[in-house]
Write a structure and sequence with these properties.
Elements: E1 3-13, E2 17-28, H1 37-42, E3 49-63, E4 66-77, E5 83-92
Antiparallel strand pairs: 1-2, 2-3, 3-4, 4-5
């Protein structure tokens, strides 16, 4: 049985932006058939055993017509290097 324990925090500043973060501890049961690539994709890259996932998103309003989003995601499975993913997005409102 899959077990997932997590915590999430959100902080908003009216008219300026927001900060959101989360952390999850996921215990994945050992499955002999998890060797298929499609099974790993369906499980978001999580492997049998203890997995940790975390994310931070910063959204900032730069002006009345411009907004920027910065994201960071990470995950760690047993015996596998930590995976880090970052991104940035700029939106212009016309």
């Amino acid at each position: 049985m899959l077990q997932d324990l997590g915590v999430e925090i959100k902080w908003n500043t009216a008219g300026k932006g927001s900060l959101q973060g989360n952390f999850n501890l996921v215990e994945m049961p050992t499955m002999e058939r998890l060797i298929h690539r499609s099974a790993t994709q369906m499980l978001s890259g999580l492997k049998p055993g203890t997995n940790m996932t975390w994310a931070v998103t910063v959204q900032r309003k730069l002006s009345s017509h411009l907004q920027v989003d910065l994201t960071y995601n990470g995950r760690k499975s047993e015996d596998i290097k930590t995976i880090h993913v970052g991104g940035a997005q700029v939106r212009a409102f016309f």
